[in-house]
Design brief:
Strand content: 25-35%
Order of helices and strands: EHEHEEEHEEEEH
Mean pLDDT: 90
Low-confidence stretches: none
Radius of gyration: 16 Å
Distance between the termini: 33 Å
Number of domains: 1
Largest sheet: 6 strands, mixed
Strand order of the largest sheet: 4-3-2-5-6-7
Structural class: alpha/beta
CATH topology: Rossmann fold
CATH architecture: 3-Layer(aba) Sandwich
Helix content: 10-25%
Number of helices: 4
Amino acid sequence: MALNYPHSDIEAVRLTEQEIAVQVAALGEQISRDYDGKDLVLVGILTGSTLFLADLVRRIEIPLSFDFVAVSSYGSDTRSSGVVRILKDLDEPVESRHVLVVEDVMNPRMALRLSYLLDNLRSRRAASVRVVTLLDKTSRRQVPGTIAPDYCGFVVDEEYLVGYGMDYLGRYRSLPYIGVLKPIIYGGG
């Protein structure tokens, strides 16, 4: 069964499946060069990064391993509580390993949890800790505490994006492209 292009709840397609694939391949090539000869572990942040991580590891041409963490600063609300919790920790130690954290989208709303995770990984004596993101919403980076990624697929505007792992209330993750969700769906103006 083919997915509708775009899905009826999508206002516009921002990044096509093909555009994403090309950029993920380019990121994989760069990461392969930068980490050649190093003990690399990718750490995906659940759940949004799963599709990006799956495609990225297949494009990295050096030995690696990967694991996942689940980090929350929201609880059951849509606003940060200011308290970060690790809901699912790594299965293996990262001491003396080169850690590349895989994030689907970076924006100021996620800065607290990402900063906490990076500090936590550094405290475990990782050889290095860096970040790769598929999307970076740099227009809002002037907010104190935001982090710039070491690798970035696309710089995007501040829009409600879904697809390719990103969701709204658990829906739309399986869309093979990234689209702008219609404001009527999430109550936006």
